[in-house]
Amino acid sequence: MDREAAVDRVEEILDTVQNEEMPVPVRELWVYGDAALGLDPVERLDVYLTKDILMRGDDADRAGEFEREYGVKGVGKTVRASWADEHPEHLRANDNGHVAPEKCLGAHLVDDDEPIHLEVCNAGFEDNVTQRLDGALATETYENVLDPRGVCLWADGQRSDDALGKLRSGELVFPTLAEALEMLGADEREAELAADAVKARRERATGATVRGDVV
Length: 215
Fold this sequence. Notes:
By secondary structure, this protein is an alpha/beta fold. The protein has one domain. It has nine helices and six strands, in the order αβαβαααβαββαααβ. Helix 8 packs across helix 9. The longest helix has 17 residues. The radius of gyration is 18 Å and the shape is globular. The model has no long low-confidence stretch (mean pLDDT 94).
């Protein structure tokens, strides 16, 4: 998509997170990768959401009701029952039949055919960047690296229109991915391998994709 359309889409997602009830609380929203770098066109739009775990007592006693109705376990415990009441079409489960918050967020925020990747984790973006890099270097699974070049648009209930404006105008300046990974502790060879692996992973991706992570 062209850059203007990509940033418009980011703003729509941000508006939705700000103004609508989500399946789980969203603490942070970041944009990273092509859109943050100011590229035009934006081949894939990368969005990172930090989610909070529901506190006990949301509507856990309604889990059986939703399981009977929709065949999905854990509604009211893992995602909000009030959200599921309003958006049953967005209920998504993992392979075990248990409701999957990251997939529910993806269904609510992104259409299946959009070139958008949604990364969802309970850890903040910056913490997860470090954790994912450490894990990738230890196991040589370089494709699991999370691009650290991002901008935060939403944190703890506060929207940053200043950051959104800089994103829209392309004012943000970042190093190459390999250079950014070296700054975080990768050696030159590892950084280049990781950058190539991330590029290849992105080129293989089609349509909307969602990854859920717990650290």
